[in-house]
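Quick one, tokens below. Sequence please?
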């Protein structure tokens, strides 16, 4: 792709680094921004810089937050003894959109995947175990995607928790095997949370 401007080429190159954005789409987006008032483009640039420099991760659950403790963890209306374990922030958003879950979350930051070089030590598993050790949690809900990596991660955590008095459950399989949680419709996801089953049962299927 030939560019008449090095500045344009650089902008397209950076935009194309985003997931799902090819060179042609990047060019279209950059040309669109070029046509907008300078103030609008400045607001966008500032929002992205602020996101990178000022966003925090909740010290309790690792969710993205504007504060050291996210609004969910800080809310007095949440059931703090129930913790839903999810892969990333998108899953928190998906479950919150169902308005069916009133407990807390624990964001692992990924799934165990030896093929991708991701082991338990790369995830926020130890802080979850610490919560259980302190007696803060009575139930752990596994809400990872029903993929091989998700099931492996669930089982690893389950084995770490066997010496503690904590109930483990998993969302009902209204979510299709192999499906990513963030793509499930809200009704199905909400029912899966409400009709969760003991995790031990999922090991027999």
């Amino acid at each position: 792709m030939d560019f008449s401007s090095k500045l344009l080429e650089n902008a397209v190159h950076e935009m194309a680094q985003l997931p799902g954005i090819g060179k042609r789409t990047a060019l279209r987006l950059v040309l669109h921004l070029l046509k907008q008032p300078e103030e609008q483009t400045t607001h966008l640039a500032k929002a992205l810089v602020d996101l990178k420099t000022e966003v925090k991760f909740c010290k309790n659950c690792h969710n993205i937050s504007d504060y050291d403790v996210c609004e969910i963890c800080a809310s007095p209306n949440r059931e703090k003894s129930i913790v839903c374990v999810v892969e990333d922030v998108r899953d928190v958003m998906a479950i919150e959109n169902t308005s069916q879950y009133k407990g807390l979350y624990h964001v692992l930051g990924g799934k165990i995947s030896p093929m991708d070089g991701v082991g338990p030590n790369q995830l926020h598993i130890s802080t979850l175990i610490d919560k259980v050790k302190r007696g803060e949690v009575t139930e752990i809900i596994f809400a990872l995607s029903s993929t091989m990596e998700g099931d492996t991660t669930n089982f690893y955590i389950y084995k770490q928790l066997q010496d503690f008095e904590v109930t483990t459950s998993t969302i009902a399989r209204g979510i299709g095997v192999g499906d990513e949680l963030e793509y499930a419709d809200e009704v199905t996801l909400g029912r899966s949370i409400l009709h969760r089953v003991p995790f031990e049962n999922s090991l027999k299927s």
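The chain is about 45% helix and 15% strand. The chain has a mean pLDDT of 88.
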